[in-house]
From TrEMBL:
Coiled coil: none annotated. This is ABC transporter substrate-binding protein. Pfam families: Peripla_BP_6. Residues 1-21 form the signal peptide. It comes from the Bacteria. InterPro entries: BCAA_transport (IPR051010), Leu-bd (IPR028081), Peripla_BP_I (IPR028082). The lineage of its organism: Bacteria, Pseudomonadati, Pseudomonadota, Alphaproteobacteria, Hyphomicrobiales. Residues 24-365 form the Leucine-binding protein domain. Belongs to the leucine-binding protein family. Keywords: Amino-acid transport, Signal, Transport.
């Protein structure tokens, strides 16, 4: 009888061992091509530092290009889930793509860590958005240190110039709201395309209005264009930029003329200039050291940091999720969702993450400080 019982136990172990040893599959859905490719490829670089094993489970990172297109993002997510049974998705890069994948993510009961910045992706947390998290700050987080500096320095009038798309439109609203809240009169709100080679007409209108300050709502190399042409036209007021200006070739293109622009500064970019007591300084310095050792001096950026942090969150959440079920199961996916929602005090490259049932942003105002470009380097303003 004992012989047969032993054989039965062995059979049970053989049956359950493959399920217990299943790999954790992480889908990575980013813009390798299309208009957002520069951002998406930086994010993909950031995913190259993910853990290879968690709690004895191998982790597979499965990448697909969403081509900066929302339809392609949905098709790619379905392919990742149906073909590889992913347990969680990191991405997409773009805001439209991130909104588009919410429905299939809810259908599959699949947790998503989007890398897009818009707060509406995760708030309010409801039956659908309970599956969506992000590792980026909100527009109002970016605007707060900028407008606090304006108010402190007596700025009474402001002009905006930004991209003529959803990014620029979002900043038009934030700029108008924050200006009103801080007693600042908005004199102009000009737009330009990311591919434009001149903004002289818009700049001439701004210079004629003679505001105390100008806010450039743009990112990467295209953000350099308004600043250079403002300098060319002799504008001497204060110039502010958004977080996107700390990415790409902005510093290279503006050179010495970029010095003095004020921006929201993330630890992922300016950790070395933060005070030692900053809660994310050590983690951000570690990210910068690892990233620049692989991709070269000065290559650090916020977008790579967002992806790097997303994999850090998965690493922290997975051990608790494994108690709910094995990888490839609905129980494990729900376990990951729940475990991420319960994460507190996780220091990453972009700040300290504190999620909750009603907060799937994780970062708060402490993730950004006022920064300035000085001699080609982004530094915190103390």
């Amino acid at each position: 009888m004992l012989k047969y019982a032993g054989a039965a136990c062995l059979a049970i172990r053989l049956l359950v061992t493959p399920a217990l040893a299943a790999d954790i599959n992480v889908g990575i859905l980013l813009s390798a091509t299309g208009p957002a490719a520069a951002i998406g490829n930086a994010e993909r670089n950031g995913t190259s530092f993910g853990a290879t094993e968690i709690a004895g489970r191998k982790i597979n990172y499965l990448f697909l290009d969403e081509a900066s297109d929302s339809t392609a993002a949905v098709a790619a997510l379905r392919k990742l889930f149906q073909g590889s049974q992913i347990d969680i998705l990191v991405g997409p890069t773009t805001t439209p793509g991130s909104f588009a994948v919410i429905d299939p993510a809810v259908e599959y009961r699949l947790p998503v860590i989007t890398l897009a910045p818009v707060n509406a992706l995760v708030a309010p947390v409801d039956a659908r958005k309970r599956w969506i998290f992000k590792t980026t700050t909100n527009d109002d987080h970016e605007a707060t240190p900028l407008f606090a500096h304006m108010k402190k320095n007596g700025v009474k009038t402001l002009a905006l110039i930004g991209f003529g798309d959803s990014y620029g439109d979002a900043w038009s609203k934030v700029g108008a709201d924050m200006s009103a809240a801080n007693g600042i009169k908005l004199l102009a709100d000009e737009k330009y395309a990311r591919t434009d080679t001149t903004v002289s007409g818009q700049v001439l209108k701004i210079v004629a209005a003679n505001p105390d300050a100008v806010l450039i709502a743009a990112s990467g190399a295209p953000a350099a264009l308004p600043l250079l042409q403002l300098r060319e036209k002799g504008y001497e007021g204060k110039v502010y930029g958004t977080l996107g200006a700390t990415f790409g070739d902005f510093r290279k293109l503006t050179g010495a003329q970029g010095d003095g622009i004020f921006v929201p500064l993330s630890p992922a970019v300016g950790a070395a200039s933060l005070p030692d007591e900053h809660p994310a300084k050590r983690a951000a310095l570690e990210f910068i050291q690892r990233y620049e050792a692989k991709f070269g001096p000065g290559s650090r950026n916020i977008f790579a940091g967002s992806a790097y942090d997303a994999l850090l969150l998965i690493e922290r959440a997975a051990p608790a999720a494994l108690k709910a079920g094995g990888p490839g199961t609905a129980e494990f996916r729900e376990g990951l969702r729940s475990a991420i929602e319960e994460l507190k005090g996780v220091a990453g490259s972009r700040g300290v993450y504190n999620y909750g049932a009603n907060d799937h942003t994780g970062l708060d105002q402490s993730a950004l400080t006022l920064g300035r470009l000085e001699k080609g380097e982004w530094v915190a303003v103390h």
